[in-house]
Amino acid sequence: MVIVSKMLQNKFLDKDKMKRNKERMKKKQAKIKLLMKDDKKEEAGELQKEIMADTMEMMKGTQKMMVVSLPLIIVYFILGALYAGVTFESLFAIPTFTWYGFIPFPDGGFSIMTGWRRAYFVYYFGWFIIIGIIMKVKEKIIDSEIKDKSKWKGKEEKSEING
Fold first, then answer.
1. What sign does the CA torsion over 125, 126, 129, 132 have?
2. Any idea where this protein resides (predicted)?
3. For every one of its 163 residues, what pLDDT tens digit does the chain have, with 9 covering 90 and above?
4. 65 and 106 in a common domain
């Protein structure tokens, strides 16, 4: 799986091209700041549009990689579920305490062939989903904070211009 993901990265993400694009974007952002200081907002707007186009182009490689790798991840988890012998009932089974500590056997017994694999598959798949949800929520919070800050900056600039 790791080898496949590395191959996909090499195929869809051209690192040199991405570095060049980032450098070009930094130069354009510096030009935009200078143009804004000189009150040339139309030219700054055009440069901003070019930056957005470059950003979209950079995202295309990542999107292609995700589109190709997502089915592979789904197949990986389906095969893992089949290998682990996960059934609908076993997803809701209660782990048990044993004399050598807490070991999550959904069967409630010492079953290495099914219990161990099923338990760890369900455990890691659950954490995979939980961490994904946490990252999405964190991303939404950061985005909303950035929007709030930009709104306040816009209001402050307008008040400075007016006042």
1. negative
2. Membrane
3. 456 556 655 655 566 777 777 788 888 888 888 888 888 888 888 888 888 877 777 777 666 666 666 777 777 666 666 665 555 555 555 544 444 444 444 444 444 444 555 566 666 677 777 777 888 888 888 878 777 777 666 665 555 565 5
4. no
Pair 156, 142 in one domain? yes
Same domain? For 79 and 106 the reply is no
Q: DSSP assignment, residue 3?
A: H
In order of 74, 120, 137, 140, the CA distances from 134 in angstroms are 20, 21, 5, 10
Distance separating alpha carbons of residues 62 and 21, to the nearest angstrom: 14
Q: Final residue of a domain: which of 38, 69, 84?
A: 84
Question: 96 and 33 in one domain?
Answer: no
Please report, for the chain, how many H helices and E strands are present, in that order: 5, 2
What's the token pair of residue 31? 């030009």
Q: Which residues contact 111 (CB under 8 A, 6 or more apart)?
A: 105
What is the C-alpha separation between 54 and 59, in angstroms, rounded?
9
Confidence (pTM):
0.34
Taking the CB of residue 17, how many other CB atoms lie within 10 A of it? Answer: 12
CA distance 160 to 71: 52
